[in-house]
Amino acid sequence: xxxxxxxxxxxxxxxxxxxxxxxxxxxxxxxxxxxxxxxxxxxxxxxxxxxxxxxxxxxxxxxxxxxxxxxxxxxxxxxxxxxxxxxxxxxxxxxxxxxxxxxxxxxxxxxxxxxxxxxxxxxxxxxxxxxxxxxxxxxxxxxxxxxxxxxxxxxxxxxxxxxxxxxxxxxxxx
Length: 174
Description:
The chain has 6 helices and 6 strands. The longest helix is centred in the last third of the chain and has 29 residues, at 143-171. The chain is 43% helix and 15% strand. A 6-stranded mixed sheet has the order 2-1-3-4-5-6. Helix 3 (63-72) links the parallel strand 3 (47-51) and strand 4 (76-80). It has a single domain (2-171), classed as Type I PLP-dependent aspartate aminotransferase-like (Major domain) (Aspartate Aminotransferase, domain 2). By secondary structure, it is α/β, with parallel strands linked by helices. The termini are far apart. The model has no long low-confidence stretch (mean pLDDT 90). Keywords: Aminotransferase, Pyridoxal phosphate, Transferase. Its cofactor is pyridoxal 5'-phosphate. It comes from Dorea formicigenerans.
């Protein structure tokens, strides 16, 4: 597995400790540099994982370029799109195979739900749904948490527009 050098701290812990217990080898690369990603690919690489906009350094990765490179080599691409959810970025349209979201952040928008989502083709998602880890981790939200997520989705587009306006205003300060 290849992974971006900059990922959310808890993700990094899972990659460096938990997955290694299951024999998963993780190679890190600067995903903002396509040559670095290509150089990190090994014969046993099955997946390239990165964040579309990294946490905490806010580096942007070219999803389409990495997806093209990966698919030429028969490698899947998984993108954590937590910081750039729709309507901002659509990784599946850019060629990614799997998209992950922490719904706790922008999708919920109110900070009162702990939830996540994995999006992809039926072929890729079914084994995840049927796997023992999803049964242990509890992938079915309660009705109330589902209500809270739906409430957040009602204003998500407006909130994301305001986030973008504020970000641009801050970025262009003098």
